[in-house]
């Protein structure tokens, strides 16, 4: 039995008093944070609870017992009505004069606790870019396009409502793996599919003119897709480190395999994800630097995507020295050993890891054998086979939000990227409560999980295509519709469009990336 299975099996169901709810009163305090009145917690002493607590301590998790509070339904309904009538975003601030600090030039010193509002907005922005790789991904195993993006790159952000961020997608990235890793590669049940070996793994985007002026440089973004829920393949990927680069750095072989795998027999991975992304990033850097612009590279990803982001940053720093490179990852596992961490630091890569305390994935690989063993270096010497996290950490706490369910072990909910973005939006500091003026739509938390309290009346896992993708045809029968021709994956068409875009984007051209992307 695996450890995660043990946790699901032995954690007790929480008990609450009849009619009890999680809320009593939400009010605004002088910090403009949301404050929740909690009564005294009662302790449980049964054997099952003690076992659950022991497992939680092993994983360094914190599991709240349920709060027994009373709520006035009228007050709560009034509060939600007011919340629904406010915008979901705050006005954008011009950060051009401080972009290097926001991008991590000083390792975000003094900006994380309390969390600077400019940095908060940028973290949410990059998190939404990572979330797009889930929202647009075709998970339907009965679709001939399972594993692809539902939309072509010219309309991806428009469909998902991300056009407001001021970026345009320039290229899609595809990945495969020669290593059998359960629940990573999504495959169709159908015999005739767009690809039997590859998945859409992310994209490259670049800031438009208006956003470039606001943030003070031309920002190239790479967003990597991860896993929707933490599955047991993480436990299978902590047994082998393999070398990377010319020094002592080593990385987890499964992550590296996804990043570098290719095959001449595939349609989309005759070149690896590594080769695809680096070719595009190098092209954009050369293009905009030739125009005399300052250029940055920001790489983001959640879960597995956060691991790929670090590998991407390592390669980019090697091949594009002097380029400001930052990684903003969410719920990412450890990737490599101490030498890998040190080489990233020496090459100037800045990494900000956003971590939820209750999430199990950032504790892997190396649940026991990890960076905590460095305290014994005087005795053991440097252990090159020990997994180590990289960069600065922004640690969040599920219990800080009055909108999230407490007291239950919800592994998919803890790991959900939407949970992360909700907690970032509400975080001010470790000494204050959840921000009352947090703007991000709370309903988004339940897109793919069940984390919101029932008082909010938001159904769990609500994000799906109407009728699960079926439509009624002219004869009144329910059928699976054909994709728009422009949204059907085609390596030939994508290559031709990308080549044309590259020609038209030369410095002498009057075209802009925004016009080329049809926006």
TrEMBL record:
The entry's keywords: Chloroplast, Hydrolase, Lipid degradation, Lipid metabolism, Plastid, Transit peptide
Superkingdom classification of source: Eukaryota
Residue ranges of domain Fungal lipase-type in the record: 221-367
InterPro entries the UniProt entry points to: AB_hydrolase_fold, Fungal_lipase-type
Main location as per UniProt: plastid
GO cellular component: chloroplast
Biological process terms in GO annotation: lipid catabolic process
Protein location: Plastid, Chloroplast
GO molecular function: galactolipase activity; phospholipase A1 activity
Position of the signal peptide: none
Family statement: Belongs to the AB hydrolase superfamily. Lipase family.
PANTHER family named in the record: OS12G0614500 PROTEIN, PHOSPHOLIPASE A1-IBETA2, CHLOROPLASTIC
Name of the protein: Fungal lipase-type domain-containing protein
The organism of origin for this protein: Malus domestica (Apple)
């Amino acid at each position: 039995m695996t450890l995660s299975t043990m946790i699901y099996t032995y954690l007790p169901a929480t008990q609450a008093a009849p009619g009890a709810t999680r809320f009593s009163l939400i009010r605004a305090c002088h910090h403009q944070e949301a404050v929740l009145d909690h009564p005294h917690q009662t302790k449980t002493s049964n054997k099952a609870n003690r076992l659950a607590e022991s497992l939680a301590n092993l994983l360094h998790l914190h599991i709240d017992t349920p709060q027994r509070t009373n709520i006035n339904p009228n007050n709560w309904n009034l509060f939600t009505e007011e919340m629904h009538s406010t915008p979901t975003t705050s006005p954008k601030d011009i950060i051009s004069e401080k972009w290097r600090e926001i991008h991590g030039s000083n390792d975000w010193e003094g900006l994380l606790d309390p969390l600077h509002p400019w940095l908060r907005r940028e973290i949410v922005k990059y998190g939404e870019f990572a979330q797009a790789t889930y929202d647009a991904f075709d998970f339907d195993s009965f679709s001939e396009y399972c594993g692809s993006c539902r939309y072509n790159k010219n309309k991806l952000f428009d469909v998902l409502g991300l056009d407001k961020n001021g970026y345009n997608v320039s290229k899609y990235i595809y990945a495969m793996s020669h290593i059998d890793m359960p629940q990573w590669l999504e495959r169709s049940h159908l015999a005739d599919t767009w690809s039997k070996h590859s998945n859409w793994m992310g994209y490259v985007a670049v800031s438009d003119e208006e956003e470039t002026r606001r943030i003070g440089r031309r920002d190239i973004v790479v967003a990597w897709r991860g896993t929707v829920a933490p599955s047991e393949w993480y436990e299978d990927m902590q047994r082998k480190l393999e070398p990377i680069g010319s020094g002592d750095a080593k990385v987890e072989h499964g992550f590296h395999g996804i990043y570098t795998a290719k095959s001449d027999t595939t349609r989309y991975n005759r070149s690896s994800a590594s080769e695809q992304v680096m070719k595009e990033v190098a092209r954009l850097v050369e293009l905009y630097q030739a125009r005399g612009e300052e250029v940055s590279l920001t790489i983001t990803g959640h879960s597995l995507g956060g691991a790929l982001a670090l590998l991407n940053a390592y390669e980019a720093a090697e091949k594009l020295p002097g380029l400001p490179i930052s990684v903003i990852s969410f719920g990412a596992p450890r990737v490599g050993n101490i030498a890998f961490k040190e080489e990233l630091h020496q090459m100037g890569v800045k990494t900000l890891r956003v971590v939820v305390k209750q999430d199990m994935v950032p504790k892997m690989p190396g649940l026991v054998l990890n960076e905590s063993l460095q305290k014994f270096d005087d005795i053991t010497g440097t252990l090159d086979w020990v997994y180590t996290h990289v960069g600065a950490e922004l640690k969040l706490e599920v219990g800080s939000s009055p909108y999230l369910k407490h007291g239950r072990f919800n592994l998919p909910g803890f790991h959900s990227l939407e949970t992360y973005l909700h907690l970032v939006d509400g975080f001010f500091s470790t000494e204050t409560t959840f921000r009352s003026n947090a703007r991000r739509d709370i309903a988004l938390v339940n897109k793919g999980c069940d984390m919101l309290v029932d008082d909010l009346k938001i159904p769990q896992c609500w994000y799906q295509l109407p009728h699960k993708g079926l439509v009624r045809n002219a004869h009144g029968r329910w059928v699976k519709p054909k994709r728009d021709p422009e949204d059907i994956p085609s390596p030939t068409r994508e290559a031709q469009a990308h080549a044309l875009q590259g020609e038209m984007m030369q410095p002498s051209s009057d075209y802009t990336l925004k016009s080329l992307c049809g926006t």
